[in-house]
Amino acid sequence: MNLLLQLLTLTSLCLTVYGLDNGLALTPPMGWLSWERFRCITDCKNDPDNCVSENLYKVMADQIVKDGYLAAGYDHVNIDDCWMAAERDSQGKLVADPERFPNGMKALADYVHSKGLKLGIYESMGYKTCRGLPGTYGHIETDAKTFAEWGIDMVKMDKCHTPGAALTQQGFINMSIAMNKTGRPMIFSCEWPNVGGNRNWTLIANHCNTIRNGRDIQDSWPSLITILDSFITNQDTFAAISKPGSYNDPDMLIIGDYSLSLDQSKSQMALWSIMAVQLMMSNDLRTIPIQFKEILLNKEVIKVNQDKLGIMGKRIMKTPDHQIEIWTKPLSGGSFAVVFFSRAEDIPRPVTVTPERLGFNHTAGYIMYELFDHQHLGHFMADEELSFKVNPVGVVMLRGDPAHGKTKLDIKSNKII
Question: Active-site residue numbers?
Answer without folding.
Answer: 158, 216
